[in-house]
Design brief:
Blueprint lengths: L1 E6 L4 H10 L3 E5 L9 H13 L5 E7 L3 H7 L7 E3 L3 H9 L5 E5 L5 H13 L6 H14 L4
Parallel strand pairs: 1-2, 1-3, 3-5, 4-5
Helix pairs in contact: 1-5, 2-3, 4-5
């Protein structure tokens, strides 16, 4: 599995902390603090990397409250982004909903909590129970509809 991480300026400090904690994270940007940057630009770059090998890639996005990056990431087909604040929540987002992009709110969690959440994201596997598969199939149908 290949892991990518990106943020905007508000998530840069937390992103850089996580990169130091987890060598397997590939930094998509930004590399420096630019107050005028916009999170959709970095989400796009991260999703572009993941889509090259969607079954063997995952991503982590960080912004001030995590909502913006999550909204943008979920606009792309085959992406399932989830905003999470705790290890237990992250575990179920992965095991039940098979998220492939973890979104973190830099202003609302500590570095230590984010480290624990990312560790969970990197180690938890999807639980392919029938109910989970059935629901994800319905999500895919909606994703491919024209509404």
């Amino acid at each position: 599995m290949k892991y990518f991480i990106a943020s905007d300026h508000a998530g840069l400090e937390l992103k850089n902390y996580l990169i130091k904690e987890f060598q397997e994270l590939n930094d998509v940007g930004p590399k420096e603090f630019i107050v005028e940057d916009d999170y959709p630009d970095y989400v796009y770059l991260l999703v572009e990397k993941i889509k090259k090998d969607i079954n063997n890639s995952k991503g982590i996005l960080v912004c001030k409250n995590g909502v913006g990056v999550c909204m943008v990431a979920n606009k792309f087909k085959q992406t399932r982004a989830g905003l999470t604040f705790s290890v237990d929540h992250a575990r179920t987002a992965i095991s039940d909903d098979n998220i492939n992009i973890l979104c973190l709110p830099a202003d609302f969690i500590s570095q230590e909590e984010s480290r624990k959440i990312v560790k969970e994201f990197l180690s938890t596997e999807f639980n392919p129970e029938n109910r989970h598969l059935r629901r994800l199939k319905k999500v895919s149908i909606i994703e491919n509809s024209n509404i």
